[in-house]
Amino acid sequence: MILLDLEGVACRRGGRLLFEALSLALEPGGAALAVGPNGAGKSSLIRLAAGLLRPAGGEVERAEAALADEHLALDERRRLGAALGFWVEDPEPGIVAMGLVDLARVPVRILSTGQRKRAALARVIASGAPLWLLDEPANGLDGDGLERLEAAMAAHRAAGGAILAASHQALALPGAQMVRLG
Amino acid sequence: MTALILRELRLAASGGAALLPLIFFLLVATLFPFAVGPDGPLLARTGGGALWMAALLAALLPVDRLVEPDRASGVLDQLALRGHAEESVALAKLAGHWLSFGPPLMLAAIPASALMKLPGDVLLRLELGLLVGTPGLAALTLGVAALTAGLRRSGALAGLLMLPLAVPLLIFGAGFLERGNETGALQLLGAVSLLLVAGAPFAAGAAIRAGRD
Predict the structure, then answer these.
(1) What does the angle CA B164 – CA B189 – CA B138 come to, to the nearest 5 degrees?
(2) CA-based R_g, chain B, Å
(3) Where would I find the beta strands (DSSP E) of A79-143?
């Protein structure tokens, strides 16, 4: 079973070819890490895999996926727990895993940058989707947050999930395929 | 789908966003008699049309809060990721928006018609016309909101896009208020409104998709 299958994918943004003939397959337990300088197309690769961008060439197939990118997509006026509850049936596992228990009753609008990142990752963790798409998941996280993220990623892979991450920061994904862009 | 409609209603209620068009509508109804003078028969003759104008302009106000915040915050992306078609998201938004716009506007039309000294039968036809026409207005608002999402200073552009398209609603809505013109105008108003409601989710869905590239 393959959770994410990119075949000869090309990406064109604003008339500029970012990458082409990129192939990548993720099986249960697998992981891939996209690296490259700013503007190399790391985020575009994540959006392509999510199906939010159409590839200029090639084929994308994927299992059910959860996405954490720079957009929080939580209603600012609601409490964090309720806002997460709009997206996932039971946000509790994610809230616990990312250490947000004390913040579950706090309105989303007063969360800090790092807490917002944790919230976006909590939604991914609680989603139950086999494929995680993480765009710069370590951005804004403190040491504790990064440890929690890496523990959650390891647990997800051990349970048969797969991860495609894009990051310019060091991220512990043992045995991950490296996708070098740019 | 239900969760999406409920979310639209919650967003409309939060911070009084849904009140803004109503206050605007009532404000116009208050100002109009000051402008044309306290001549009862004149007010009664022109007031119904003025209220339709006010409804049209009030429908413009929610344009910037219907689609753009959800696009910018990634909500539309997350919905797409979960397999919701853009068209069904737009349909849910349309339903939620109309519920927070149409019925309250019909309620506000009662005091507004008193300010315009409209006779009872004209008020009745105004209410019926609004019931049939506001779904069309809400559909126009949604379509234009999706088309202008992500543009800077979209407010003025939205007005330019929307008001010409709303002319048929205005003609048949106001036309229905004239005595002896009853059935034909209402049927045409219904036809225009239905066309807008049927087309808006597809136009808005396509606009949301196109906005991602």
Answers:
(1) 60
(2) 18
(3) 131-135
Number of A/B CB contacts below 8 angstroms equals 41
Pair A32, A163: CB distance under 8 Å: yes
What are the backbone dihedrals phi and psi of residue B5, each rounded to the nearest 5 degrees, phi first? -65, -45
pLDDT of residue B183 exceeding 90? no
Residue B37 above 90 pLDDT?
A: no
User: Rounded to a whole number, what is the distance in Å from the CA of B19 to chain A's nearest CA?
Assistant: 18
Say whether residue B7 is in contact with chain A using an 8 A CB cutoff. Answer: yes
Are B14 and A77 in contact (CB < 8 Å)?
yes
> What is the model's pLDDT at position B112?
95
Prediction ipTM score = 0.92
Q: How many CB atoms lie within 10 A of CB A21?
A: 10
Contact yes or no for A73 and B11 at CB 8 A: no
Amino acid at B28: V
With tokens 């992500």, the residue in question is B150
Question: What proportions of chain B, in percent to the nearest 5, are helix, strand and coil?
Answer: 85, 0, 15
Q: Does B212 touch chain A (CB under 8 A)?
A: yes
Minimum CA–CA partner of A88 in chain B: B82
Tell me phi and psi for residue A58, to 5 degrees.
90, -175
pTM value is 0.92
Contact A73 B81 (CB under 8 A): no
Give the span between the Cα atoms of B40 and B33, in whole angstroms.
9
Nearest CA in chain A to B81: A50
Using a CB-CB cut-off of 8 Å, the residues of chain B touching A73 are 73-75, 77-78
Give one word for A160, left, alpha or beta, with left for phi > 0 and alpha for psi -120 to 50: left
Q: Cβ distance B10 to B101 under 8 Å?
A: no
What is the percent of chain A with per-residue pLDDT over 70, rounded to a whole number?
A: 100
